[in-house]
Specification:
The structure is a homodimer.
Chain A (H helix, E strand, L loop, with lengths): L2 E8 L12 E6 L2 E7 L11 E11 L1 E6 L15 H15 L2 H17 L2 E8 L2 H11 L2 E8 L11 H14 L6 E3 L2 E2 L7 H14 L3 E5 L3 H11 L3 H7 L7 E5 L5 H9 L3 E4 L1 H6 L7 H6 L4 E3 L12 H16 L7 H8 L1 H6 L16 E4 L14 H9 L5 E6 L2 E5 L2 E2 L4 H16 L1
Parallel strand pairs in A: 1-4, 5-6, 6-7, 7-8, 7-9, 10-11, 11-12, 12-13
Antiparallel strand pairs in A: 1-2, 2-3, 4-14, 14-15, 15-16, 16-17
Helix pairs in contact in A: 2-3, 2-15, 4-5, 7-8, 11-12, 12-14
């Protein structure tokens, strides 16, 4: 049985950057069966269902880096400088944050993301079983990367080896859950010893797990690793054989040309988080150089405590602005690249070739953007819409969302998470954590 | 007769940065009569009207720099480098743009601005009578700065002296229109000769007109003025006696410390336009240094052809991000400053002491922000809302807007401009201009 979605505009994010106006997407068993201009659609068979969609249909957005359970900490410590923010506000609260708060924060964050068109998120946090539970309840496709760290405070989760073992056990326990993929989330080169970094790499190779790590977010973390090892962070990780076939590195702000070449040579994907990098004054990542070197780059929201929303439209727009400012060139990054950073390139950065585009066999994760706001005009040719979408669009214009063919947002409202009700629980949890 | 607005939260943007939860604003004859915590409100008299307002009430936002008639050119030439964009797309279209397109573009832009909470806009463009007509039809408070320029293509409006004379005539013709203030809009130091710049200053002094000018938007324009005069743009303008009591300078990206001191010494206001400065790769303005020197700084959207929306929430957020990145300091600019950049400081930058705050005697320009989106939680104390407003809020959350006590937006819909209908006219006009 086919569900056919016939839309005013279909933007498949295919290699040719096609736009079909009008266009169709055929969905069968949660995957894309066919896509193209409406005039080219095959005849439907009895039992097939035709859905008319006003506006524009594009693939579900892929959030390359997040700590969404921190929704429960949104805005905490606003205005404090970074180290006081971490030490006085975030870390003490996180020490009190248990599985229930992690589940609730993920559930609410997933509802916010789905309402904004994000259908997949790469999540690094702790209490990962609870995180997965929240994500599944919301119907969000999620890569769960249980954090592995040897920093002060992390003893409560045991040794790095314990954290790695639990991640593998969680992967086994959730093997039947189609929405979830479990990997390993080594926190960073500066919060893990060499032994733990090697053990992550060995386990990832043996168990075929994707890996997610923070790399060169701030200038000082690179200075520390260089003082200890004589190498930049990418060079150091490469020297340990750390980079596997599905490693993604978040932030990557402070890279030189050699670092970019190392990431490219090892096929490492990059999660660019401009909102967080600006709010925390970390810097502007060399996105143009990374893309030119062939690195797959996607955008990420980072956690809502350093952003403070989960809005991938804003991240894509910031990616364009930062790249143009960094390079002093208004042609540094454009509309097509912005759309790729949110969809197909983001999927590639996470090593997920089943996401990010309407191509036969890929997941039927779909977003409908209503074009009712006046910012979507004037339009002389359908392709004009794409500029409006990137420069003037908003997560608030997402009206319907499907994950694997299942509708999870209808008329702008997430139907899987009762957000008005959960907000009361969120306030109570935030008050508990504030102590 | 008093209209009393009783709201869950009232943010008056007064010098103490008060927040009343709940609070009230009393309005009489289009102006604020009183404001304070709800418990402190005086008894109402017979005939007074009480309005209950859910959410947060703040002063109408002040857009410090715009060319809103360019709504009719939104997205035109997307992806072209700056000089080709101007020469091949924008200037040829503007040469065909007549009063009807200017009126329509302003009308639609005003509708978009009002729906996003902007109640005042500083507009520099040509066909200024038509611009004022569009603004008045929408019910937007507008400072109209007829452009004065001696650049190629401008001959169609006569000499600089002609343009100055028409501006004065327009001021006289619109003297009875409470929503409109007319000034002079000398385009820039690099598009006007010394004689014209002096004539602008003399006329502004004699006629008591506010002045609006582009200053140091790109690096190259300063190089040109320095080659010709040996001075930076601010120093050159100061040497001509150009700066009057109500001069506002847009952009001000490429300033050194001496330039900042010159602007401060002459009481020049600055319109900071981060969205446009990023899209066109112009650079990041020294907002922190300007504020520290005592310069009144507000944010502006610039024209929708270089932005591409008229969203002051986004501009304020970008102002924080750029300042933090520029200074490498997460404490460079914070939530309170962002809110001031949109309201009271923006009013000060334009020399309008009747706008930008709920203080007795000021205009009753008011914006209601609905707090229905999940990004406005968690909240442990009412002041937490302000961080959410700045970091996660959106023009889409503005639900009601009043200008001088008159409601112009209801439940998110502009009631003075029929935007769905005007969009058809906008498309037709855009097609005409494309030729």
């Amino acid at each position: 049985m086919i569900d056919r979605y016939l839309a005013d505009h279909v933007l498949p994010m295919d290699p040719a950057f096609s736009l079909y106006s009008p266009g169709f997407v055929d969905v069968a068993e949660g995957r894309v069966a066919a896509v193209g201009p409406a005039a080219g659609a095959a005849a439907l068979a009895p039992g097939d269902v035709l859905h008319h969609v006003e506006g524009l249909l594009l693939p579900g957005l892929v959030n390359c880096h997040a700590h969404s359970p921190m929704t429960v900490l949104r805005g905490a410590g606003e205005g404090l400088p970074l180290q006081r923010w971490l030490r006085e506000v975030i870390w003490p609260r996180e020490a009190r944050l248990g599985p229930e708060e992690a589940r609730l924060g993920m559930l609410v964050g997933a509802g916010e993301m789905l309402q904004g068109g994000i259908t997949t998120s790469a999540e690094m946090y702790f209490h990962s079983e609870a995180v997965a539970e929240g994500a599944v309840a919301a119907g969000l496709r999620t890569l769960v990367f249980p954090a592995v760290a040897e920093a002060p405070g992390w003893e409560r989760f045991g040794t790095a080896a314990d954290m790695i073992r639990s991640a593998v056990a969680l992967r086994d326990a959730l093997a039947g859950e189609d929405l979830i993929e479990v990997g390993l989330g080594p926190h960073a080169a500066y919060t893990l010893g060499e032994g733990a970094l090697r053990e992550v790499a060995e386990t990832a190779a043996a168990e075929r797990l994707p890996v997610h790590i923070h790399v060169a977010e701030t200038r000082t973390e690179g200075d520390g690793v260089r003082a200890r090892t004589g190498l930049s962070i990418p060079a150091y990780l490469a020297s340990l054989g750390f980079f596997g076939p599905r490693t993604a590195a978040a932030h990557c702000v402070w890279l030189d040309g050699e670092d970019v070449a190392i990431l490219a040579a090892h096929g490492v994907g990059v999660a660019h988080c401009p909102g967080s990098n600006g709010k925390l004054a970390s810097g502007m990542a060399p996105v143009k150089a990374l893309r030119s070197a062939g690195v797959a780059v996607g955008v990420g929201t980072d956690g809502p405590a350093s952003n403070d929303n989960l809005d991938l439209w804003e991240e894509a727009r910031l990616a364009l602005l930062y790249s143009r400012l960094r390079e002093g060139d208004a042609g540094a990054l454009g509309v097509e690249e912005a759309l790729r950073l949110m969809t197909c390139d983001a999927a590639a950065a996470l090593g997920r070739d089943d996401l990010g585009a309407f191509l036969p066999g890929r997941r039927a994760d779909m977003v409908r953007v209503s074009l009712e706001d006046v910012v979507y005009d004037p339009v002389l040719a359908p392709r004009d819409l794409l500029g409006h979408l990137v420069w003037a669009g908003s997560r608030r214009d997402v009206s319907d969302v499907w994950v694997g063919g299942r509708r999870v947002v209808e008329a702008g409202r997430c139907v899987t998470v009762d957000l008005p009700r959960e907000r009361a629980a969120l306030r109570a949890a935030a008050a508990r954590l504030a102590g």
